[in-house]
Specification:
Helices cover 55% and strands 14% of the residues. With 174 residues, the chain is an alpha+beta fold. The protein has two domains: 112 residues, no CATH class; 30 residues, no CATH class. α3 crosses α5. It is elongated.
């Protein structure tokens, strides 16, 4: 993994994003990655604080980031000194990763229950579809249409062939 994509490389991600913004570079996937480690608010807050002392960064900031969003993030983090933001970002990443993992597990558990219910419903419906009466079964071959069986009752998965009555009850040519 590139050091730039390493979530623990907070300062490197901040430096890269600030450089792209200050020099008006084209944003790339690497630029997007700077904000996608559950700590985008902390990254944006550091960049906003740097923009107060860097005119070039301040002039381009609105072209890359939503000022309303990053100002709201900076307000939430106003009591955290800039030198402590990497540690706060690490804690945020850990907390949000755990929350996401818990959500994924909850989704898997919910999906498993739904699959079991669907399978149970499917088996129940399959049995219901198989119960009843097939009124006519025929076979078409080179000699034409031939009656194979008539009025075959089904119960569950088992065919109950009628007894007697002049209908051929052996559809496999027995």
């Amino acid at each position: 993994m590139s050091r730039l994509n390493d979530p623990d490389n907070f300062r490197g991600r901040v430096n890269y994003a600030a450089h792209v913004i200050a020099y008006g570079r084209r944003p790339t996937r690497a630029f997007d990655n700077c904000f996608e480690n559950y700590d985008g608010d902390e990254v944006a807050t550091v960049i906003l604080r740097r923009a107060k002392n860097n005119a070039r960064l301040a002039a381009n900031l609105h072209r890359y980031l939503s000022l309303a969003s990053i100002e709201a993030a900076a307000e939430r983090l106003a009591d955290v000194p800039t030198r402590r933001l990497p540690e706060v970002a690490r804690q945020t990443r850990a907390r949000r990763t755990a929350e996401f993992d818990a959500w994924i597990e909850q989704q898997r558990a919910t999906d498993a229950v739904e699959v079991r219910e669907t399978i149970a419903d499917g088996v129940h419906r399959t049995d219901e579809r198989r119960e009843g009466l097939v009124s006519f079964i025929d076979r078409v071959d080179a000699e034409g249409r031939n009656e194979v069986a008539e009025a075959i009752a089904f119960e569950g998965r088992r065919a109950l062939f009628p007894k007697g009555g002049g209908t051929d009850c052996a559809p496999w040519g027995a």
